[in-house]
UniProtKB/TrEMBL annotation:
<dbReference type="InterPro" id="IPR050834">
    <property type="entry name" value="Glycosyltransf_2"/>
</dbReference>
<protein>
    <recommendedName>
        <fullName>Glycosyltransferase 2-like domain-containing protein</fullName>
    </recommendedName>
</protein>
<feature type="domain" description="Glycosyltransferase 2-like">
    <location>
        <begin position="10"/>
        <end position="133"/>
    </location>
</feature>
<dbReference type="InterPro" id="IPR001173">
    <property type="entry name" value="Glyco_trans_2-like"/>
</dbReference>
<dbReference type="Pfam" id="PF00535">
    <property type="entry name" value="Glycos_transf_2"/>
</dbReference>
<dbReference type="InterPro" id="IPR029044">
    <property type="entry name" value="Nucleotide-diphossugar_trans"/>
</dbReference>
Amino acid sequence: MMSFDSVRVSVVMPVYNGGAFLREAVASVLSQRDANFELLIRDDGSNDGSVEFLETLRDNPRVKLWSRGENLGIFGNLNFLVSHAAGDIVKILCQDDFFTHDTALQELLRLWENLGDDVAFLRTGHGSDGGSRLNAAELDVLPAIVPPAASSTCFFVFGCIPGNLSNISFRSWVPRMFGAFDQSLPYAGDFDFWSRVGRQRPWALSRVQNVLVRRHEGQASVTLNKQGELLRQLDVVLSRLYADIRPQGVQRFLLRWMASLHYMALHREMALRFYQTTRNVRYMGELRRWFADRPYSFGWVADWLIYGISLGGRLPRAGLAKLIVRGCLKRQPSA
């Protein structure tokens, strides 16, 4: 375990048209007390005045700034920043979020101090994503430390468990050992990265919340995937996870049922809403193209039947998630 007093944190903040929230995000970092940190910021081609504000930080010794670069996209920008981080721990803070108090980094380091040296990443604020039954099931069954042998099952069942990027901190050796964020997956690169790392190293969850993650109309999670753009990339991740899980002994039928109730039902509902408002079938076409005949799918017609019988995937989803994950965790060897 690392000594709290010797640890340096690299806070990385990718910026693109940060708008009104950027100043508050930066101020929340620079106000941190009793923590050895650096703040790395790279602008990705903003045209809203963000660059002009960032230039005012140029002389701050704690800030490393790149403000005149080409557009790399969110994950390309993150890869750049992480490659220049000098800290032991890398903390992501998105431009529209902020630390809730001036000892947030100190609190984060205390959490890391109690984790084993092999733990790759830590998600804080676990349980803050919403009040759905599936979120409640996730809180109920996931352990504080998720072992690699159970990780792919947990990710397949619950999706991208880390949630917003601002929830995450990780050891600086992680990208050197397991590779960078995949820039060919601009919508699902985080889901791919965390699940890829998690299958090889343990990772941790904490309910301690020291970052406020904003919900607003301009954030990426709202503006992306309007017409099913995410689905091809989601299929890439789910196909890999499904292949990882099968040797672990989880029944294939339960996994396919979970995929139908969770991913197929969710995106089928989004496709129907998109059609109702636009009379455009593109989203539904993407859904059929990428999900209809995959190994983790029952097939196009069967998934429609499950969607109807389960009231849009709502009824048994949380219970099935608990059944699968608990069964997987029971098969893990005792520490």
